[in-house]
Amino acid sequence: MTSNELRQKFLDFFEEKGHKVISSSSLIPDNDPTVLFTTAGMQQFKPFYAEPDKAPYASVASVQKCLRTSDIEEVGDDTHLTFFEMLGNFSFGYPEKKDSYFKKEAISFAWEFLTGKLKVDKSRIYATYFKGEKGIPEDKESLEILKKIKDLKKIEPQGFEDNFWSLGTEGSPGGPTVEFYIDGIEIWNLVFNEYSLQKGKYEPLKHKGVDTGMGLERLLTTLNGHKDVYETDLCLPLIEKIEEISGKKYKENENLFRIICDHIKTAVFAVNDGILPSNKEAGYVVRRIIRRAIVKGHQLGINKNFTSDFVDIVSAIYKETYKIQADKVKKELESEEERFRKTLKMGLAQFNKTIQNYRDSKGEKVSELYTGEAYEFEEILPGKVIFDLYQTYGFPIELTKELAQEKELDVDEKGFQEEFKKHQDLSRTASAGMFKGGLADSGDPQVVKYHTAAHLLLAALQEVLGEHVHQKGSNLTADRLRLDFSHPEKLTDEERQKVEDWVNDKIEKKLEVHLDECDLETAKSKGAEGEFTEKYGDKVKVYSIGGDLSSKEAVSKEICGGPHVENTGELGHFRIKNETSSSKGVRRIKATLE
Ligand code: GLY
Q1: How many domains would you assign to the chain?
Q2: By residue range, what is the domain housing residue 42?
């Protein structure tokens, strides 16, 4: 069976059963700041579980593109992917809403589809259900329904970890699940949404709903008797292309091939949906995924740009289902790869230098590294060095390990993990003061402060110099901010002082920073500043200081992805370090917070 046939069979089946077929939504979740990506079919229907009256249909079915990074370490095995498609059927507002359904129908649809439509031998199938745990009762209703299926050979009780599902974010629906397995592999997850996660507790939902998810790639693998997902028509052409580009054999490098295949596909879909590689939030995850693919390529011996060579293949694989804007995606991948290869090159040079320095200083270090065996000394690359390579040059530990091996060095993985953890703790402290939307990883606390200070600076310049001032560029580090803005001449000493005083005044006033989300037109009409040369999505985030987007009191309103501090009182004293020309008609200010 082909992937196209399987998608169609699934949708046709549920259409016959009275479902409205809905197309896949974007990988960028619509209006849900609690998640970075669409990770499940239910994402686009999430609000309907709590408010079924808003659902245009009581039952729907879809094939949804998903991006999940929670299992990224597992990618390379037979079944895990970061990009996959989820077949799902959903129902809302049971029992009040006409044509809604719940456990009995959902379980019998699943059984009928697997054994009737797909003709899977009944003896290969078994099911699990929720046995009750963490104060949530056993799902007896599902058990009774399952028991009535004559040819179901086994029903296994499972706990919360396995048979309870929710997105896990505040306000998301969740509930006990029934899962169908084929040949011992989990195929279909039927979630019965009876609860909602409220302040960390699962509270009963007034309306009940159904949310099911079945991975297309996994199901296809099972039906076709493939060994793993990479043998399906959704992956194989990519694997073949990697063989062609690298001149290496898949069978001898399975893990590297699989990761490259998965990650490049993920990148193509993410960029296609407008998630461009960047240093924050979803864009940062996409950047990491692309870079990881390049590093794996490097380990395979590919030393030229190659990621964009896969775009046409991905496009061909999915041509009946999704439209890939090949030119746009290629351009993005090429520029990201170009940029990263420079870093990679510098990183490699740095790596060699580090090793050399380390070896030069070996005489002193030997005693520390003494392993206890007489006259045998071991060379170990310290965790701090590995972490610096990771932090500064984006070198994942696998790459460092690989390079170290070539030089007959061991790496102190434990030390690296410790450094890593230290850093994570720091970023966590930073995110604690952030908005929910800043779920991202970008959070060096100092950079976040400079980000807010940059907004204040721009507003101050407009105040002091005039409305013609707009941002032309910015760059933030943990040590300073740099802002480029339109203005024809050098600031006078007096102007410079006024700008500085204006910003410090707003800091001293301890103004709150508000986040609003709306469409671009609304943002503009309410006076939000933005670099309108950029493309924005349907919804934009606007950060306002000292009032929200609608208020007249706000001293700054800017379209921006964040993150920001919650209150300007956190910033410290603002000082302009210098003011220079950047290009014709554009001035540049560097400033610090002290
Ligand atoms: N929403 C069900 C699943 O992801 O398995």
Answers
A1: 4
A2: 3-223
